[in-house]
Amino acid sequence: MKDAKMKPDYIFSVSWEVCNKVGGIYTVLSTQAKTLMEASGATLIYIGPDFWKGKDNPLFTEDKSLYPEWIARFMESDGIAVRMGRWNIPGNPMAMLIDFSSCFDKKNWIYSRAWDLFQVDSLHAYGDYDEASMFSFAAALTVRSFYYYAIGPKYKVVYHAHEWMTGLGALMIKHFVPEIATVFTTHATSIGRSICGNGKQLYEYFSGYHGDQMARELNMESKHSIEKQTAWNVDCFTTVSDITARECTQLLDITPHVVTPNGFENDFVPDSKHFAAKRSKARKSILKVANTLFGTDWGDETCIIGIGGRSEFRNKGIDLFLDSLRNLRDSGMVGNHHVLAVVNVPGWVREPRTDLQNALAAKHGAGAPMPAPYLTHWLHDMAEDRILNAVICNGFRNEAHDSVKVMMVPCYLDGNDGIFNMNYYDLLIGQDLAIYPSYYEPWGYTPLESAAFHVPTVTTDLSGFGLWANGVNGRECVLTDGVAVVHRTDSNWNEASDSIRDMMRQLLNMDSKDIAKVCKAASELASKALWKHFIHYYTDAYDMALRRSLGSVSENK
Known about the structure:
- This protein has a nine-stranded mixed sheet with strand order 3-4-5-2-1-6-7-8-9, with helices on both faces. Strands 14-11-10-15-16-17 form a six-stranded parallel sheet, with helices on both faces.
- It has helices spanning about 25-40, 70-80, 105-120, 130-150, 165-175, 190-195, 210-215, 220-235, 240-250, 270-295, 320-330, 355-360, 385-395, 425-430, 445-450, 465-475, 495-510, 510-525, 530-555; strands at about 10-15, 45-50, 60, 80-85, 95-100, 155-160, 180-185, 235-240, 260, 305-310, 340-345, 350, 375-380, 405-410, 435, 455-460, 485.
- The protein is built from 19 helices and 17 strands.
- The chain is about 45% helix and about 15% strand.
- It has about 550 residues and is α/β, with parallel strands linked by helices.
């Protein structure tokens, strides 16, 4: 009979994105909290950087009744200011926000200890390495102090570090408080992302890459070093997908102990009672802005196709998305349809367009096309923006006779962008098709989210989510499955572009009944990725870490 899982009494989950909405890790942590607390039964405390001291952070509610004596004592002894409260997400878990600025005074000593203890190479640090490392070190000091003040050795404790930015703290906990079990999750290897971001072919020559050598070539030695040493020294090393596990084996010289796929909670998806109204509102908003830019009067029959996510032109497949749209336009397959492609990828925004704001406020019918009729916001350095250049180079002028038009929304949709004044999800629901043809995508929240919103979705088999979807169906997913997975390699650009073109054409030619079936299939597939189905991978990792930590402590006694 298999032993029952060993469960922690306390979990400290440390990330740069706690109460700090930056990217996908924020979604991972903020959506999992309630389910993780229920599944583990542990006291869950998130730890993040305090960038909001003296300002209102809408994501965090401070509670000065939480451990005020410890906070004062810790500030006096270690010089680190901590604010405790609640993260304003489902489950309202406790959160500690740390002001780590005082650690910079002892930066050289910290890096020296990291080298002496774990051979972490910080000599080649630049950019965000110092800031992340000082936060990580401060987080370790915080947990060590809190452990001895409020917890003690009779309780089982896990320290879970996310991404290389928090690796230093995990190593320090491992050395100074070995009673605490350490878990490290890399959501994407720094070297793998850098290889792709520098235009190199990751997959064609995959078996020939050596992580240490590539770190030297790409000037990534310090980030790679902390990531590799953390992976090697913690009690349990995890990553988010099978494709990234393979990458870890090749580039970090260690295979993750557990794969912990990213789930989500669908409580942000409108229920059936409000879904149609929210979708209609989104479509009206998108079409109003587009028609004002284009000088057109396209109606609700318009097929709205979107891409979103971070501004990683190649990694996120923005280049292939625009090429497939050009392919569709030039193929003559559009017929009498109107296709509006929305590129919702934040860039270096200067300001919302005042001429567009004024035109939208005027509430008159279709007027003349506006200057630069593909931009909702002005950008800094427009001549250098890769997406804008690709739109223009692919021949998208958004002229009256064009049946395929492109609208760039280069801002973060938080409800205060100055043009839509709606959040990302409130606009996502208005799309007819979402396309994320990623080249490098360890998991892929954007396709998972769009599927959850009943939007038929295209991704690739170079994404963790795409591989997972294929695994669920036991074959390569096609559009009628709700999520289509395009086969993508380093050398099949034209074939991938043709496949995406054909999927867009397939959707254009579907009747309303068939579209409804595809939308339902997308939602049903997404529902299989809820945290309630995935959280056991986390409890598996914690079980392994606790057992290995206890064994290590016993050996050293």
